[in-house]
Amino acid sequence: MKFRKERLDRGIKVRCEDIFALSSWREIAYLLVPRMLPVVALLLIPLLKDTIGLYWEKVLMITCVIGLLSLSWDLMASVGLISLGQALFFGAGAYITGFLNVTLKLSPLFTIPLGTIGGALFSTLLLVPVLRLRGVYFAIVTLTMPLLLARFIETTKILGGTEGMSALSPLPNIWVELYVPVLALLVCLFSFRRLISEDYGLVLQGIRDNDRAVMSGAINIYWYKTQAVFISGLAGAFAGAFMTHYYRFVGMPAFAMDYSILPLTAAVLGGVGTFAGPTLGAFILIPLSELLRAVGTLRVVFYSAILIVCVVALPEGIFHYLRRKYHQFERMVEVG
Amino acid sequence: MEHFILTVEHLTKHFGGVAATVGIQFQLRQGELLGIIGPNGSGKTTLVNLLTGFVKPDRGRVIFRGKEITGKPPYKIAEMGIARTFQMVKPFYQLSAFKNLIIPLYSSRVKRLRGGKYGDRDDVAIDLLEDVGFERDSWVPYKVASSLPHGYLKRLELARCLALRPDLLILDELFSGMSMSEVASTLPIIEKLNAEGLSIIMVEHRLKELFRIAHRVMVLNFGEKIAEGAPREIMESEAVKAAYLGSEEEG
Asked: Which of A88, A112, B11, B247 could be disulfide-bonded to B39 (CB atoms 3.0-4.6 Å)?
């Protein structure tokens, strides 16, 4: 007797968008559990700092920061802008925050919001002239921007030059250090997901898929691209602004390649275009890279090997795969 | 007194050494349906691109409702009221048909024409689809664009233009790739739009259908206007026959 695996998709559309979703506790749970579980977990982890240990709590913090950068990457990708330079946002936010703290002696309560907005504004202004470029051409420009700014600071010796600016005000306490990035990540994740499913988000995705059709729909695509870059800039610059006060230092490493490449890798690993995917990607990549410290110098080899296997086996991204499987029944049926 | 909605003067565009259009001139009356025909490569699509700002002319002027629009970006020209279809349909494939129309409905032009209120864009979109022959009480308007047949996609393209409530509609080979029955059902839609006062320019290869509804026809060959007149005159013109037969021999 032969068996064949049969797959059935549940009516995802109906379940999510109709009153049907509220018809029973089972249906509500079906929709809410995958959304609420990670939220609750994220909010609980900082509370368990005595059991988990401060080291892993710091890993959580870095993960949230990279998560913010990958969300920022994904929003730009949603409008068709492939960026290789999220470090631009990170560095701009970091330097403005540091500068405000050093010169005006403002407290982190003011420098972080100002650095976030200022960093996003500054990077957007830098990118506006190249928003006409598409695909790999845009990517190359974004790759060079952080490098350019780092060299500029190095040679002109402004903003502390190679020394950077140190002895900045510390964050008030450990709870702020842990909860601010966690909350920022959650707010960012859910607001981006909301934004992209609104009519406004449709316009952004339209620009990615067919910018000529959007243009002939009397929509100024460059203005919308600018807005998208600014919104992603806010997420990226916030990450930089926060880390500045956490390290109590800002210097050229703020423009490091890591902040460009890690978010990109997280997004590709997790699944582009869903926002949840890149976040998930960050939560796999960063802790994994910490775990691999145990194997010493071979760390990068293992790390790369795992990445390659993931990308080859699940090219759509882990999140897309998980979501599909969650909505699928599988059963064995008799054949012949 | 005649009122011209569009005046085109000496429009010239070269791509490298190739002259795509050479000194094209014409005028379009308010409410007129002008057909543009010509063999492949005669510059019809380039002309449409020049009129809608997708290509900038080397020389010449385009005046729309008394304002010069030469060299303006496409979204500004669309904002002023010229809507165009694309020859190669490329809808937003993963969106459902009616969601495809949300994007033009989001524009400031539509907001302005609706007196500052968008209303429910989804409802407006469904109405527009019904106007171009999507069955209202079926699943068709809700289907993903990638699952729709070509004829529907062409009409979706038309609906995308109508969403802008244009003053001038430019159809770039709307009928290409449509079946006979699809053409037969789309033709009355265009006639109706024109009867309601919409000025239309139709670039078309389906001459029989075009000649039936056009008020005037212009013929292009190698980027130049070789003839212009009522459909009947064009049909009998020797120059036009030569241009078409000539191109067939080469092909």
From this structure: B247
